[in-house]
């Protein structure tokens, strides 16, 4: 276990990092205690001397510039900067301008961990070291002002930056101010777009942007989003990018058929409408698909690991190849240009971890550019950046086509659909979602409790922010990393979670203790295994206290389940000691068999409903008493009467013969449908990947052997639990598949808790396990998914809205990411029925036959799919025989409007669930109530039902606040614009001033000006300031239109 210090680097023993949490004064920062002044002087002198010596060795025109640059840097650091679009070379009219963009694509973990990639460790796995890339590139930029380079992944850049002396930092700042080093994208990582949740996407960008802004100022504000490697592209991501103030997006991967069509029609570059039905033009984003992925044209890869011939330009030597090289370059440029629409093209000169030997790559590019420009007139090639290329397109005076659908699913050839990773590493995907939940609560409580420097809370929270940042990477939450790297990500999340749990512990003490004293401080503990009914504190104490914190801005009821050993319990809460009804439900054999349940002594779950105040907590006193548990009744197979699970609002009938679900009814709405549900598996294809038809199913690719999956069983054994608060039907399908169908009192939806694993591989076959909900609804080839937890997209079987699909994989080619919900509708006229499933982590799924909705739960495969990871996706879990994964689906049957309301509200409750903390105390409930606040809310009144408190966190000496209207325009009753007065919204503080920022928090909206684009359909492409209608006057009334997120920097005055 490695501890990471405050700047994300491991400290040498002689340099002690001092963390300065100066929240109320300046930016939190790291300082090293050392004889640094002398070191800096010495380093500065060395650099000057090196510069002089280097200058002597260079041609005369270089010599002056080199020395001039250093003088600028050391003497005139406040020179006006010329960065951004002002620094662009816009080429020449009437020729083909080639924007040559040197770049490095640095995966924030994949084959190696993020730190191994940074250092260059484990060279046998992959020869890559980001520190050498940056060292090498910075030197090259210093040596030649004509060169340009972009840098993208701030997780890496921050590591390097934190290890540089001030003299080097000044040099780098100067490079940034002159536009020679440009930050593009600027997130902590280049996030995956299929398995990520919008909350985490926004956070990871905010983290990267803040690093850039704090260290470099506005010249480092990225103008262009750069998603060159993710495996498919989400419309919501485009919408979020537009709201972050990006002027454009470039990416590298799109379906091979779509790409061919777009090249043919010259629409690789277009205007993407990220939210046509809700945010309108504010979510439009100019988007360009790159011609050649993110690599150079064939024959022009000159990094240390490349095999292409260098430019051999001395006629006195053998193998002179200038003529071929120039001809090949001009051909590559003109070929590419023939499929784009302006006289500008972009060529990406780089690749994975490229430029660790920058002089080698640059030397050949320099030679080639000089030769190409010197020998012919039709092509003009020069160093450029994606933003300068974008700016040239913007100046081209063109009208662009538009697009409203997304870029899922992605296939690179006919049998290779990248739809497996929607589900790969199902447990890790769940962990990432849960950890986001904890992080948000932790950031809120830090602000609500007004924790200060003495608590080091911002340091602790940063550990988790960075861990979450790297986990969003397109080889992290995607599940496409090596197993060892997946463990590293999980360890980072666990370490960060422990830090955040400590912050919550401190905050709860501060908010609860009526007469705070160190002696009276409680130690709130957290149970990280509640999903498998394991928690030492609740199992081993006959009495304990529990605080439940609700991170939502509205009151919620939450059903809780605590692992216990007693037969009966008494639960009190509230200042007057109100009794809380509860039920003790024996654990199932299947729960006891989950390997992660090991060492637990729990025999039952204590079930009760916590009714929680908005953005606040309740404390419960729980003690063992005498009484009886709820009985578990075995159901005899093939009995005569069906089994019905029901409460006053909904019922589910199980077939008497098979034990499978056969009917569902919404009693409130009077809607009843035949519904069956079962688990199936596909056998993963085991080809050797040598050609499309031999594509194997793997971490990226889903390729089932056959179109029809095999049922795991055609029947299930049943057990029934009936109680006052919860009824359960427990189904066992096989020794690796079980399910609890659960209905709480008063709940309008049904929980399907699935447990899958260890997936058997004894027959040397990989299996991909799905659950399938089967109705008779006439869904007319359609189903619906969310995108990254936000807007809903319609999916049509064997169809893509903007290009003609030749479907080659009837199952995998119809799979889409399901981040938080999916549904099917009865599409016939006059029917209003909708069947909705919400999930607790990102999964892949589809509607392969009308009326059906299938969702992949877990995958275990024995072949690599030959897309780089080099390992089969064979997770073995803690027991070593195969990972067991447990998760939940929440199933609702209703009409369209009630379904939308339910999935919006429930979706919010799932990803921002209450946080539970436990402690033991000798105090009686009466004594406790005297000393502690038992019920507390951080808001004076609840937020309107459509409004979500998306962010509340420290922001230098202020706070960052995001509010979101999370309903779409017309989807449900209550959709529409909402207004919140926020001056006195929060109980612990008043807001005294506020500035509206863009979504990423790196620019006041009042200063935002985005490039304007014309589109063929006549609509203006962008109106950045349209949403900036905020009144900066008390009581700070904020209006939120459907799906709008507004971001504010707020000044707080604690009362
Ligand atoms: Zn990558």
**Fraction of residues in helices?**
10-25%
Number of distinct beta strands: 50
Question: Unreliable runs, pLDDT <50, ≥5 residues?
Answer: 1-80, 1021-1029
Distance between the termini: 41 Å
The helix count comes to 19
Let me know the largest β-sheet: 10 strands, antiparallel
Within the largest sheet, what's the order of strands? 23-29-30-31-32-41-38-37-34-35
Q: What is the beta-strand fraction?
A: 25-35%
Shape: globular
Radius of gyration: 30 Å
Mean pLDDT: 91
Structural class: alpha+beta
Bound molecules: zinc ion
Give a description of the structure.
- With 1055 residues, the protein is of the alpha+beta class.
- Helices cover 25% and strands 27% of the residues.
- It is built from 19 helices and 50 strands.
- Helix 2 (60-75) crosses helix 6 (166-177) and helix 7 packs across helix 14 (457-471).
- The longest helix is centred in the middle third of the chain and has 30 residues, at 483-512.
- 53% of the residues are buried.
- Zinc ion binds next to loops.
Q: Helices and strands in order, then pairings?
A:
Elements: E1 17-20, E2 29-32, H1 36-57, H2 60-75, E3 96-105, H3 114-119, H4 130-143, E4 149-151, H5 154-162, H6 166-177, E5 181-183, H7 198-216, E6 224-227, H8 235-243, E7 248-251, H9 256-265, E8 269-273, E9 284-289, H10 322-337, E10 344-352, H11 358-375, E11 379-383, H12 386-394, E12 399-400, E13 402-403, E14 411-413, E15 416-417, H13 426-448, H14 457-471, H15 483-512, H16 536-540, E16 543-550, E17 556-564, E18 568-573, E19 578-579, E20 582-586, H17 589-593, E21 604-612, E22 616-625, E23 632-635, E24 643-646, E25 650-654, E26 661-666, E27 671-683, E28 710-711, E29 717-721, E30 726-734, E31 737-744, E32 750-756, E33 767-775, E34 782-786, E35 792-796, E36 816-818, E37 821-825, E38 833-839, E39 843-846, E40 852-860, E41 885-895, H18 896-911, E42 915-919, H19 925-931, E43 935-937, E44 947-955, E45 958-965, E46 978-981, E47 989-997, E48 1014-1015, E49 1037-1040, E50 1045-1054
Parallel strand pairs: 3-10, 3-11, 4-5, 6-7, 7-9, 8-13, 12-48
Antiparallel strand pairs: 1-2, 8-9, 14-15, 16-22, 16-42, 17-21, 18-19, 18-22, 20-21, 22-43, 23-29, 24-25, 25-26, 26-27, 27-28, 27-33, 29-30, 30-31, 31-32, 32-41, 33-40, 34-35, 34-37, 36-39, 37-38, 38-41, 39-40, 44-45, 45-50, 46-49, 47-50
Helix pairs in contact: 1-2, 2-6, 7-14, 10-11, 13-14, 13-15, 14-15
The chain binds zinc ion.
Residues 105, 107, 229, 474 line the site of zinc ion.
InterPro entries: Gal_mutarotase_sf_dom (IPR011013), GH38_C (IPR041147), Glyco_hydro/deAcase_b/a-brl (IPR011330), Glyco_hydro_38_C (IPR011682), Glyco_hydro_38_cen (IPR015341), Glyco_hydro_38_cen_sf (IPR037094), Glyco_hydro_38_N (IPR000602), Glyco_hydro_38_N_sf (IPR027291)
Organism: Owenia fusiformis
Cofactor: Zn(2+)
